[in-house]
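This part of the workshop introduces the protein records we will be handling. A record pairs a protein's sequence with a compact description of its fold. Comparing a sequence with its tokens is the quickest way to learn the format. To make this concrete, we reproduce a full record directly below:
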Amino acid sequence: MLREIVGFAGVAGVIVVLPGPDMALVLRNGLAHGRRAALESAVGITVGLLVWAAAAALGIAALLHASATAFAALKLVGAVYLAWLGLRALRDAWRGTSVLPDDVGGSPRGRNGGSAFRQGLLSNLFNPKIAIVFTTLIPQFVQPGGGAALQTVVLTLVFIGMGLAWLTTYALFVARVGTLLRRRTVQRIVNAIVGTALTAFGIRLAFERS
């Protein structure tokens, strides 16, 4: 079992640290609203993973993955949501919108799609490709036998734990850098970059084949 955990952790580590919409969202909220918003985004994403894990345990994720129509529908919703967040960021970049970070008296609840926690949660829940991790990747590292259920739980917790640890570390780093780079010009550049990235992720999700 230890060998399977180590092997899975290596694969999961690559998946976790690869740049994607989760990291873009943490970056956007961290620089715009401060440390609390960055951490709330990370927690929201992690809660989304827990929901997907529960869905996998109940067989819902497998059904979703097996149904081309349901998978495509959820993928389209996720694509639209990511593109919407991206376009809002691009709008702020164009207008030069500057938001007071919560670290200095503002609030992480801003103008860009609701609270940072909800943004992280929804961006994860609306990404059906996460279901593939729980229905396809994890089972490859589970040895057949009576302990298959326990192995699945352990590997699931490893994946979620690694994701939370990485995003939390990344969120704290972004918040620290943000205190140095939180100028109107820099915020506009960050909004433009992250907005473009989120919009691109949404478009790719919409047209990417399963």
